[in-house]
Amino acid sequence: MRDATTDPFDRDDLPVAPGATGSLLRSLLRAHRARAALAALVLLLQQAAVQAGPLLVAYAIDRGVPAFRRGDHGPVTAVAVGYLLCAAAAGLLQYAFVRGAARINQDVLLDLRGRIFRHAQALSVDFHERYTSGRLISRSTTDVESLRELLSEGLQELIGVVLAFVYIAAMLLWLDLGIGGVAVASFVPLYLLVRLYQRRAAVVFAERSTAIAGVIVKFAETMNGIRPVRAFRRERANDAVFADLNHRHERSNGDALLEMARYVVGSRLVANTAVAGMCLWGAYRVAGGTLALGVLAAAVLYMRRLYDPIDRLGMFLNSYQSAAASLAKIAGLLAQEPGVPEAVAPRELPAARPGIPGREVVFEGVRFAYRTGGEVLPRFDLSIPAGQTVAVVGSTGAGKSTLAKLLARFYDPTEGRVLLDGVDVRDLSTPELRRGVVMVTQEAFLFSGTVAENIAIGRPDATREEIEHAAKAIGAHDFIAGLPDGYDTDVRKRGGRISAGQRQLVAFARALLADPAVLILDEATSSLDVPGERAVQRAMDTVLAGRTAVVIAHRLSTVEIADRVLVMEDGRVIEDGAPSDLVTGEGRYADLHRAWRDSMVG
């Protein structure tokens, strides 16, 4: 068995360069710097209004009460009015901050989800074959939601607590240097407690993020494969695996709550000890006449205000550790480079030759190996003239589909070049390549939406008349017209509302509408019944006319339409010729053809 440590795709988290998480967060916030600065200013003013309260209390006790006893109600009235004004200002400023921060929060999350989706689409087929769709779903949902909690609630708590610390420390030092010094000294054990919690919680939340991703992956895989699950009675086995993953997630959540509980108990112990010590020492000083009673009252209120947010700081740290673990996974995903990068200096294909819509295809000294296996094409040379249809046959693992994937540039060769009319496909921009080369696979994937929308994927700007013309040309119009809403019928998830043969006809209509110079058919009829295969073969006659075509053939009935047949074995062409010539010989193709004919008779 392959060691899991050798391939990051075997783990939930992808490698992250030092500082990548911080760089991602800064890049997300960069566009909102002005609004973030304004929100910070609003919160600064709000905290100033909030923290004015204990000062007013001290003034009322030390100045207002003695004046009130003398019959002067002015100081007490001023304190009451000032307190009400500060409370009103704090409320209004809090509203303004929450509203502004919420807008920034939503814009950041909108940007992040868009980045994940666009980047995932840009990554190569190799990446998606190794990194499950369930993990991608987890990155764009659960992990983004963790960041939402941090931005919407956690940052406000953090900034509020930091400002409170600064304001209160300054006020206490200003009111009385001794009391202020004691308050500042009490920050030290609290700081050590926070650091301990951060270290322990980082491990726990990374495990929790991995655990929920495992739950999502298993759920998505099971629902996508529900037919084989039911056919092979995998329900009990899947239940057992899912229960194990679910318990792992439960344990990680429990560990997170336990760490939070430890932090809250420790912080409250520090807070209560500090307040109790200040009360005792302050009372002693008041009794001795070295400290005013109002100053002591203000100091105690400030200390309570200082430590009351400690639990909220714990909630921020909770959100922060969860978001940090999630953001690291997102950063690892966004750091992945496409295996088939865009051309640095893109070239265009030369103008098509008159009367020949196809393009010449050349494999020149091509070698290729998948990352997870040995070399598939040891050295491959092939030339396909423009307009020729070439069928490629051979046993499983011979390299047929690899040939198609290299031509479609789902992968790049390890060595050598794939040329289209003399131009290396790596030098073509993606839109130029996709206009020139189209691939129809064994599974004709249809997206949720109407039949017309699925055909129009071949050329999004096509008119309704052009869509219907393409469907008529390949023989799909009659069955489409017979659907409940015709071309406007919703095919549902993966085209489940229509048969496999009908989905394949829609795929051919899509390819015909795209009007490519080179068409690749990768076992496009292997999953069809005989009537469906015949319908698709009739469509193939229309679609392939005049184009260069590479047909990966599983059923030899497909080969009959080819001008030329290549028989592959172990990544090499062992036979090459016209079907009529090879079938009468004594080679590998003749053996395959005889076996196929015998199976048809049987």
UniProtKB/TrEMBL annotation:
The chain crosses the membrane at residues 36-61, 81-98, 158-175, 181-198, 290-307. One of its GO terms (molecular function) is ATP binding. It is a multi-pass membrane protein. Its main location: membrane. It is found in: Cell membrane. PANTHER family: ATP-BINDING CASSETTE SUB-FAMILY B MEMBER 10, MITOCHONDRIAL, ATP-DEPENDENT PERMEASE MDL1, MITOCHONDRIAL. This is ABC transporter ATP-binding protein.
